[in-house]
């Protein structure tokens, strides 16, 4: 359960950083407010379209394998986004596809953790694990906003003054590097979950 909570916190802290950067990229780099709308719409639609596929995949392979595949897809989307302006929307779409699988499997893994705890104790306690995961996700999401604000202040973002080319480059790097680092951390936690799952089945 602790590994699952750590996974939830890590992804909530780092992955939303990507979408929250879109407004600043649209205003400070692309100089087109409609770009932000396009980016957010692409992200939402890609997640929506991807969910049936992830549900189908989850019926065929193990949960930790699905988590690993979702994280790899998320990381590939961030890498594609980082390659340049011609690939940014495609990278956002690929990120959304991976993120949909990740979000789905976190809750599926919670159900498994609850069932495992029930088998050990012989009692059913659903409320506490669900509340703990919700608290963890909300805490990570809230701190993600603070992390973005700190990053923007470090690059010198101001509403009235346009970004210089160097500042724009730092903003773009920050937008993909923070969630990519988070995806790498989440992947390490998924490996830990996989080992725990194998040990508990013995």
Description:
The chain is mainly alpha-helical and 202 residues long. The protein is built from eight helices and no strands. Helix 1 (2-14) packs parallel to helix 7 (127-155), helix 1 runs antiparallel to helix 8 (165-201) and helix 4 (33-58) packs across helix 6. The protein is globular and about 55 Å long. The model has no long low-confidence stretch (mean pLDDT 88).
Structure summary:
The protein is an all-alpha fold and 202 residues long. Helix content is 86%, strand content 0%. The longest helix has 37 residues.
Instruction: Report mean pLDDT, rounded to a whole number.
Output: 88
Oligomer: single chain
Report the sheet with the most strands, covering strand number, pairing sense and barrel closure: none
User: Roughly what percent helix?
Assistant: over 70%
How are the elements arranged and paired?
Blueprint: H1 2-14, H2 16-20, H3 22-30, H4 33-58, H5 63-82, H6 88-121, H7 127-155, H8 165-201
Helix pairs in contact: 1-7, 1-8, 3-4, 3-8, 4-6, 5-6, 5-8
What key attributes describe this structure?
202 residues, mainly alpha, 8 helices
